[in-house]
Amino acid sequence: SYRSRTRKSQKGVSMHFNHILFFSDKDSEDSYQLIFAEKPPENVLIFRPKGFSGLPNGLEEAAGSATISTHEVESLSIDDSEEWMANEVQTKPHRVLMEMFEGLKKTGFNENIVISIFSGSKLHAALQLTFAMIIDASIQVIQGKPGQEQKIASLDWLNGAMSAGTKKLQQGVLLGMLESKCSEYSRHTGSQS
Length: 193
Known about the structure:
This protein is of the alpha/beta class.
């Protein structure tokens, strides 16, 4: 189970967190400093789109001694040179979500998971929210642009509000993943002429 269980901090014991972030090619050093100052990292998982290498600027410095790992995911960009078909637009987010689950499984994170949303498209944000709700992670949004004053808004209320409808959300996501795999399979087997 990927459910996140947040430990209650005990007096005098500092709690560390497992952070999950999408790769940002913008200068986000201040954002990382803010995220990690509030919730010190033990581990950091970066979902990095194919075609990028290395770590985002400022991440290593902000993470200190935390273990940083990356997991490559398909790019969500629509302006790629390949022609997009209708089913590609429908199934790509599900494929990326599956890759996110693979990355989570490899890290072994199962408690104190925090997903911080601060860069990327609305589709990136929607995927991160969906992923966070399924694994019951803490969600926080960084408000303000890098280089300007920023603050963290916690969306912990979303966890409790969604718990009743989580089964239906999980079923919908799993159905989408199945359709994605089915579509991918049919492209490889049925479209050879």
